[in-house]
């Protein structure tokens, strides 16, 4: 690993996970060029004629979205330590035989300790996002095959919009969604508030999958994220997103949305 000195006199890698890195040059000293990134164009021709994008399972949703080796998969953290979906995503990826994925969360929590086996077996290559608790300890001890990249919330959004990180597949857990993929975080039994941390993912990702445990009649209005944003399919799985801190609620039917 070749190291260079940044403006603070610290030695930092010139390359991270095979990509060039830009050393800190000082406040206001670095002016990026180019244009913002953009998602592929989609039209009504990409959607089912009846507008119903439901699939039968999360595995089917990921398969239809084209999940393959080396992709960057993003998730949001609005359910915090109650997130049950992320582990299901990588369990499904492992079942499909997909390897060397990059997990790009807006944050990680102790509940994500269950991802460690997928880091060990090569399903996940490395994590770019916050790392704390068991995952942070695992990475600090050198367990991760790739190099961890820590990102602030604002820095993560900038990295997506500037094209520093290309999100191949965004999987958005939504407390409520309709069959077209319009979704909301302020409705449903697992309501968590507006899905702000998922906006960049929905806007710039090549493919978007929405997973919900509460299907609502069309349209899911007001929505946080519109189903026209690269969302081509969707699915749901039982209790996929219900926060673990909400005991006593009856299980909902299972449903996925993949786009």
What does this protein structure show overall?
This protein has 259 residues and is α/β, with parallel strands linked by helices. The protein has one domain: Glutaconate Coenzyme A-transferase (3-Layer(aba) Sandwich). Helices cover 18% and strands 19% of the residues. It has six helices and 13 strands. It has helices at 58-64, 85-95, 116-120, 133-140, 153-161, 199-204; strands at residues 3-5, 11-13, 15-16, 19-20, 72-75, 101-105, 124-127, 169-174, 176-177, 183-184, 207-212, 231-235, 255-258. Helix 3 links the parallel strand 6 and strand 7 (124-127). The chain is globular and about 60 Å long. The N and C termini lie far apart (38 Å).
Output the keywords.
single chain; 259 residues; alpha/beta; Glutaconate Coenzyme A-transferase; six-stranded mixed sheet; two-stranded antiparallel sheet; 13 strands
The CATH architecture would be 3-Layer(aba) Sandwich
Q: Beta-strand percentage?
A: 15-25%
E-strand count: 13
**What is the radius of gyration computed over CA atoms, rounded to a whole number of angstroms?**
18 Å
- Helix/strand class: alpha/beta
Helical fraction: 10-25%
CATH class: Alpha Beta
N-to-C span: 38 Å
Shape: globular
CATH superfamily (homologous) name: Glutaconate Coenzyme A-transferase
Task: Write down the secondary-structure element order.
Answer: EEEEHEHEHEHHEEEHEEE
Summarize the SSE layout with pairings:
Layout: E1 3-5, E2 11-13, E3 15-16, E4 19-20, H1 58-64, E5 72-75, H2 85-95, E6 101-105, H3 116-120, E7 124-127, H4 133-140, H5 153-161, E8 169-174, E9 176-177, E10 183-184, H6 199-204, E11 207-212, E12 231-235, E13 255-258
Parallel strand pairs: 5-6, 5-8, 6-7, 8-11
Antiparallel strand pairs: 1-2, 3-4, 9-10, 11-13
């Amino acid at each position: 690993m070749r190291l260079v000195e940044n403006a603070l006199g610290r030695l930092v890698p010139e390359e991270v996970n095979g990509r060039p890195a830009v050393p800190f040059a000082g406040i206001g000293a670095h002016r990026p060029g180019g244009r913002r990134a953009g998602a592929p164009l989609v039209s009504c021709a990409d959607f089912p004629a009846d507008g119903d994008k439901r699939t039968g399972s999360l595995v089917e949703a990921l398969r239809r979205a084209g999940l393959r080796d080396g992709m960057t998969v993003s998730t949001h953290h609005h359910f915090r330590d109650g997130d049950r979906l992320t582990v299901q995503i990588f369990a499904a990826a492992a079942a499909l035989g997909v390897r060397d994925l990059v997990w790009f969360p807006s944050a990680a929590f102790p509940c994500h300790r269950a991802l460690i086996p997928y880091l060990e077996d090569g399903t996940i290559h490395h994590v770019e996002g916050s790392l704390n608790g068991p995952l942070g300890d695992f990475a600090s001890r050198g367990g991760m095959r790739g190099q961890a990249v820590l990102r602030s919330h604002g820095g993560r959004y900038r990295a997506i919009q500037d094209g520093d990180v290309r999100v191949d597949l965004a999987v958005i857990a939504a407390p409520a969604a309709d069959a077209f993929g319009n979704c909301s975080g302020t409705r449903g039994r697992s309501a968590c508030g507006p899905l702000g941390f998922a906006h960049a993912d929905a806007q710039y990702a090549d493919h978007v999958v929405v997973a919900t445990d509460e299907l609502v009649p069309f349209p899911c209005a007001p929505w946080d994220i519109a189903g026209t944003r690269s969302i081509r399919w969707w699915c749901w799985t039982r209790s996929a997103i219900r926060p673990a801190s909400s005991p006593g609620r009856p299980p909902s039917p299972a449903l996925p949305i993949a786009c």
